[in-house]
Every structure is written in C-alpha cells, then in structure tokens.
C-alpha cells in the first residue's frame, strides 16, 4: 500500500528509480493548479433537469445551492437509497464534541449519470477536467468550451450505452453500499468512523463530501480512492480537487490526513480477485483450457510516457500478483492483458481489448474469461462494453465459451481488506501545511495568464478551423 499525506502545494507526480514509487514534487505538472480559480470546473455544473445544482465557491469551500431532491448540502448521504450508513451527528452536535477523536474515511470515486438526462452534464464535467483532457498550458482556457463541444457530440453514444444498462450508472448505489460495508468492517475491528463518498464527476461531488467532513468536525481523515491502481486521470484528479480545497481552508489544512494512493498489491485484494476468478473458471466445461482475459480501462499513452503515470506498471504488477496467487492455488491457465474504452483521437495503451478478442478468436481460442481489473464496481464498461459489445465480438470471432468475473463490489474479504488498509493508514495522518502565495506572486501569475490567453486565443483561432481539429472532434463520436 502506498500511503501519503497531502502536503505542501502544487504536487508533481514522478516515478522514482524503482519505477513503482510515487513522489510528489513541486513544479509545472499535470496535477499542478492552473491559473484559473480552483473550483471553476464545477462552478456551472448543470443538468438538463430544472433543479439548480450550481456550485459556487465561498471562503475556499464549495457550497451547493439547494438541490432538494438529491443532494441537499449537509445531508449528502443521510438519505441514500442504501440508507444504511449515516453521518452520525448533526453539525451542531459535532461542535459540542469537538475535542473528541472523530475519524472520517473519504471514499473517492468517479461518479456516473443516474438518468439519461444526466449524461451530457456528466460528460461535460469529465471532459472539463484538465486531468482527462490535457491541453497545453497555453490552451487551458479552451478547456470548458471544448468540454461543452465534446460532451454534446458524445452524449448520444453514451446515452445508448447507459440506456442499455437500465438508464443510468449503478455506481452511486454500489459505492454507497461499499461505504456502509467498510463502516461496518471498521466497527468490527473496533474503529468507529464516518464514511463519506466523494465522486469526481457526479453526485455526491467530492466537494460536498468535504463540506460535510468539515461540518462533522472530523479530527482525522483517511482518503481511500476506490481505484486499485493509481492513474493521473482517476485518483490523481480527485486528489487535485482535494488539495485545491484543503490548502485554502484553515480547518482542513490543519486536519491530519492520510491518503492511500493505490492498493493493487494488497494481499486481501489479490486473494479476493483470485477467489472470484477461480470460482468463474469452475463454471467452464474445461476450466484448464480457459484463457484468462484481463481487461483494464485504458489511458492515453502520453500519460505514461510524458507525464509519468504509474498506471501501466501498476496494472502489470497487479496482473502478475493475481496470476501468482492463482498458480499457488493450482490454476495454470494462460492469461493476457488488454485495454478497453478508448475515447478520442489520441493513441491509447495497447493492445486494445476489441482487437485482441478478434485475434484470439481467429487463433482458435475457444474459452475466454473476461476479468475487469481497473475498477471495483459494476459500471457501464462492465455491463455494456464487456457483457454486450465484447462478448458479441468474441463469439463472432470464434470463441465458444464466454464468462465474466463480477466486480468485487461488497465481497466481504475485499471490504475487510479495505478496512485493514484504513486502520493501517490512520497513524500516518498528517496535517497539510498551508502555503499561500505572496501578492507579488499573484500579480505575476495574473500577468502571465493574460499574456498566455492573448497568444492562446490567436493560436486557438487558427487551430479551431484546421482540418485536424475537425477530425479530432469527430473521433469523440465514435
Ligand atoms: C481506472 C479506471 C478509469 C480510468 C483510468 C479512466 C480514464 C479515462 N476515462 C475517460 C473517458 C470516459 N470514462 C467514462 C466512464 C468511466 N470511466 C471509468 C473509469 C476510468 N476512466 C468508469 C468506472 C466509468 C463509468 C462510470 C459509469 O457511469 O458507470 C466515460 C463515460 C462513458 C462513455 O461515454 O464511454 C468517458 C467518456 C478518459 C478520457 C480517460 C483517461 C484520460
Ligand atoms: Fe473512463
């Protein structure tokens, strides 16, 4: 497990010589704070529903204006459909107990549209994230117009996918259930904690969860991203949101925090994955002949090559550990790893899942077991892409027996392991040191920003009408 504390300002992600260790350092980077005000990304979060969900920034904290049906501030999770885990005390009560040790666990996840109406604004939030579409600094002011364009272009295709799995993402419900299960597992270990869910691109937003953490006067916090492997585009992006909020807030910047950056190599997780794979293998007529097909969500190659994202290394190590565990249990199946869900015009990690499936079918592989490995809940890419599109493609290419390992969800050995990770991380919780820039630095930043915007506008104007740009936009439709 890699645990870290949110420290200082403007982190930079770099791979150390061992290639598996992350270290933060200062400087220009993908996780650095851009010159626009923090929170701008969500300040016009909108949806096609009539409810106003605009997020404004006040005193460094994000406050949601009333969204009574789903997300009234302060009750983000109290009335979830799972309904089982609550924040415990109201903010008034928590103030009177301020001296007590109140442990919080913040689960970070991606979030997903709950209805088809949510799809376009959800996609807007996703593409407006500078960790998802990485524009050169000069063009960063184009992030939101571009996100608007791409989200509108992509929405029809995405909606088809969400419609095929029942009209929305199951992510919120499953994550709420995991939160409840982790709370219970912690209680069984003698640790009382309030477990929060913070989504990056949809409700309940990370900002809401942090707001609630503050209201609850939590005294120590463990941050647990629900991604086994670290990627700049997932955990990194959520941590950037956290850091932007924490460094601006007196209470939060003093709150001892411990971050579990990745946990793909934890024994409990590896064993839980091996349990699920072993169980599915037994469903095949000849288990020993089944090819184990790990399918991970892809990222653009530039993340790995240019930005030092450890995602690919961690993924490969994760697969190695799962296979080692399976071998120790007597399974000696062949296996392969491929990457799915590419979006847009750039090169993504290879090999691509769809291409490998066709190759394997053509080579005569008759039995395949698909294993989603980058995510621990069922979601659109398991339920639609794997179960429908890839299954169809594999059968069409000559595969005769197809199986799919379910996502871990609330598997008890897995939840227990996550609870262990929290218990282990808690002692290393440390306060964030505040670092506010001087007014001269701020003036200089504004000046630099203005110059960049001027030159950027000219360049953008030229680029926007180039054939290459038009082709790139078309690619988001596919
Ligand atoms: C480890 C998991 C994930 C990585 C890495 C990741 C990177 C990444 N994703 C996109 C674009 C999209 N992702 C979408 C949905 C989506 N992505 C993940 C996980 C990872 N993404 C999940 C779990 C989900 C599904 C959520 C749900 O609603 O169930 C979507 C929307 C769906 C679609 O239109 O296909 C997009 C778009 C990029 C560009 C990227 C890396 C840069
Ligand atoms: Fe994704």
UniProtKB/TrEMBL annotation:
<dbReference type="InterPro" id="IPR033659">
    <property type="entry name" value="Ferrochelatase_N"/>
</dbReference>
<dbReference type="GO" id="GO:0005739">
    <property type="term" value="C:mitochondrion"/>
</dbReference>
<keyword id="KW-0456">Lyase</keyword>
<protein>
    <recommendedName>
        <fullName>Ferrochelatase</fullName>
        <ecNumber>4.98.1.1</ecNumber>
    </recommendedName>
</protein>
<dbReference type="InterPro" id="IPR033644">
    <property type="entry name" value="Ferrochelatase_C"/>
</dbReference>
<comment type="function">
    <text>Catalyzes the ferrous insertion into protoporphyrin IX.</text>
</comment>
<dbReference type="InterPro" id="IPR001015">
    <property type="entry name" value="Ferrochelatase"/>
</dbReference>
<dbReference type="GO" id="GO:0004325">
    <property type="term" value="F:ferrochelatase activity"/>
</dbReference>
<keyword id="KW-0408">Iron</keyword>
<dbReference type="GO" id="GO:0009507">
    <property type="term" value="C:chloroplast"/>
</dbReference>
<keyword id="KW-0350">Heme biosynthesis</keyword>
<comment type="similarity">
    <text>Belongs to the ferrochelatase family.</text>
</comment>
<dbReference type="Pfam" id="PF00762">
    <property type="entry name" value="Ferrochelatase"/>
</dbReference>
<comment type="pathway">
    <text>Porphyrin-containing compound metabolism; protoheme biosynthesis; protoheme from protoporphyrin-IX: step 1/1.</text>
</comment>
<keyword id="KW-0934">Plastid</keyword>
<dbReference type="GO" id="GO:0006783">
    <property type="term" value="P:heme biosynthetic process"/>
</dbReference>
<dbReference type="InterPro" id="IPR019772">
    <property type="entry name" value="Ferrochelatase_AS"/>
</dbReference>
<keyword id="KW-0150">Chloroplast</keyword>
<keyword id="KW-0627">Porphyrin biosynthesis</keyword>
């Amino acid at each position: 497990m890699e645990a870290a504390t949110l420290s200082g300002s403007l982190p930079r992600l770099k791979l150390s010589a061992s290639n598996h260790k992350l270290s933060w350092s200062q400087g220009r980077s993908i996780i650095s704070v851009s010159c626009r005000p923090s929170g701008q990304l969500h300040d016009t979060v909108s949806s096609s529903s009539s409810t106003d969900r605009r997020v404004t920034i006040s005193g460094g904290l994000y406050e949601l204006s009333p969204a009574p049906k789903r997300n009234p501030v302060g009750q983000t999770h109290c009335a979830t459909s799972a309904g089982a885990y609550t924040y415990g005390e109201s903010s008034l009560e928590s103030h009177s107990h301020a001296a007590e040790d109140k442990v919080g666990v913040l689960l970070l996840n991606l979030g997903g549209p709950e209805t088809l109406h949510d799809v376009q604004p959800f996609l807007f939030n996703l593409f407006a994230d500078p960790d998802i579409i990485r524009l050169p600094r000069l063009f960063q002011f184009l992030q939101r117009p571009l996100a608007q364009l791409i989200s509108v272009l992509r929405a029809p295709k995405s909606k088809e996918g969400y419609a095929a799995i029942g009209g929305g993402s199951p992510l919120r419900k499953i994550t709420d259930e995991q939160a409840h299960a982790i709370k219970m597992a912690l209680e069984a270990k003698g640790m009382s904690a309030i477990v929060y869910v913070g989504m990056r691109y949809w409700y309940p937003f990370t900002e809401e969860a942090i707001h609630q953490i503050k209201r609850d006067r939590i005294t120590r916090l463990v941050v647990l991203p629900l991604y086994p492997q670290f990627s700049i585009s997932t955990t990194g992006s959520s941590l950037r949101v956290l850091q932007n909020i924490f460094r601006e807030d007196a209470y939060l910047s003093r709150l001892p925090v411990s971050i579990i950056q990745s946990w793909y190599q934890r024994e409990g997780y590896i064993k839980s994955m091996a349990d699920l794979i072993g169980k599915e293998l037994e469903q095949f007529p000849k288990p020993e002949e089944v090819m184990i097909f790990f399918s991970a969500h892809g990222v653009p190659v530039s993340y790995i090559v240019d930005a030092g994202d450890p995602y690919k290394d961690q993924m490969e190590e994760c697969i190695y550990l799962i296979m080692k565990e399976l071998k120790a249990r007597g399974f000696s199946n062949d296996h392969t790893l491929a990457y799915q869900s590419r979006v847009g015009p750039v090169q993504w990690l290879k090999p691509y899942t769809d291409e490998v499936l066709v190759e394997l079918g053509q080579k005569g592989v008759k039995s395949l077991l698909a294993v989603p490995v980058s995510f621990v809940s069922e979601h659109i890419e398991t339920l639609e892409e794997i179960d429908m599109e890839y299954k169809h493609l594999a059968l069409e290419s000559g595969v005769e027996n197809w199986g799919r390992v379910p996502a871990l969800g609330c598997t008890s050995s897995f939840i227990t392991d996550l609870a262990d990770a929290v218990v282990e991380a808690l002692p290393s919780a440390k306060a964030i040191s505040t670092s506010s820039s001087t007014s001269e630095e701020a003036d200089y930043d504004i000046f630099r920003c203005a110059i960049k915007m001027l030159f950027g506008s000219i360049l953008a104007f030229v680029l926007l009408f180039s054939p290459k740009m038009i082709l790139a936009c078309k690619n988001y439709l596919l």
